[in-house]
Fold MarR family winged helix-turn-helix transcriptional regulator.
Amino acid sequence: MSSAEFTVGHLVWRLAMKWRTAVDRALAPLGLTHAQYVVLSSLLALDRPSQRELADHTGLEALYVSKLARSLEASGFISRARDSTDTRTVRLELTPHGRSTVEPAVAVVRALLYQLTAPLGDRSSAFSRDLTALLAVPLS
């Protein structure tokens, strides 16, 4: 099958796999996986989100976020605390160790993203808008 015959779905899947593999390899020296990076970098942008809010933000399953959060807490990257008004809710926050680990990781991933999108040139903003539109389409 030539590349001209690949479906859009196949190409999206291949790009997602290429990206995940590249991020995993780039972050290995920092001791992080792609999934851990997604959680930690999201915590840089969010103010003490609940695990559910973080799952919604990242697109990860809530159960997976819960599992990742427990692991990241055990490693000292984040703290988990019950919400003061709703004890069923667990709030997440970066620890100083988590912040000092994720900040250089953000720079590594940013450089990798620049490398990946360089062939798009000035079309990268339009590509980002197109991807955002596709993510907004309900499929269930």
About this structure: Residues 96-117 form the longest helix (22 residues). Strands lie at 78-82, 90-94. The chain has a mean pLDDT of 94.
